[in-house]
Amino acid sequence: MSGPVVLAAGLVLAVLLVWAFESLPARLVGAVLVIDGIGGFLVHGTTGSTGRFLAEMGGGMLVWMAGHWLYAAKYKIWRSTLGRAPWRLPILSALTPIPSR
Predict the structure, then answer these.
(1) pLDDT tops 80 at residue 35
(2) What is the pLDDT of residues 21-34, one digit of tens each?
(3) pLDDT of residue 51 exceeding 90
(4) Which residues contact 68 (CB under 8 A, 6 or more apart)?
(5) H or E segment and range at residue 70
(6) HEC profile of 2-59
(7) How far apart are CA 101 and CA 93, in angstroms?
(8) Is 30 exposed, middle or buried (CB count within 10 Å of its CB: 0-12, 13-18, 19+)?
(9) Which three-class secondary structure state does DSSP give residue 77?
(10) Cβ-count burial of 16 within 10 angstroms (0-12 exposed, 13-18 middle, 19+ buried)?
């Protein structure tokens, strides 16, 4: 029981720190995770351990997108065109904090 509570508390703390220190750390960490996942997939892709690297890439994309969402929620403008692009997809457009044309 204490494991999920510690995980939830850590997640809340991470969200508060990202909110306090802007969305830059989330965008940078997400980009690093994606790049590291792609590199690991390319280097170790034939060993059969590709699930870890795919999960790392997916998690990095989520963190990167969350950083852009947070910036848009705080400042009511998208940080970049690349950061806005995923949120223009039909399913994700319902989750945008500001209208996307």
Answers:
(1) yes
(2) 778 888 888 999 99
(3) no
(4) 23, 27, 78, 79, 80, 83, 84, 87
(5) helix 50-75
(6) HHHHHHHHHHHHHHHHHHHCCCHHHHHHHHHHHHHHHHHHHHHHHHCCHHHHHHHHHH
(7) 10
(8) buried
(9) coil
(10) exposed
CA 71 – CA 78 distance, rounded (Å): 7
Q: What is the distance between the terminal CA atoms of the chain, rounded to a whole angstrom? A: 45
Report the amino acid identity of residue 68: H
Residues 43/14, Cβ–Cβ less than 8 Å: no
- Name the one residue in this structure whose structure tokens are 């939830």: 8
> 47-64: string of b/e by CB count within 10 Å (b at 16+)?
eeeeeebeebbeebbebb
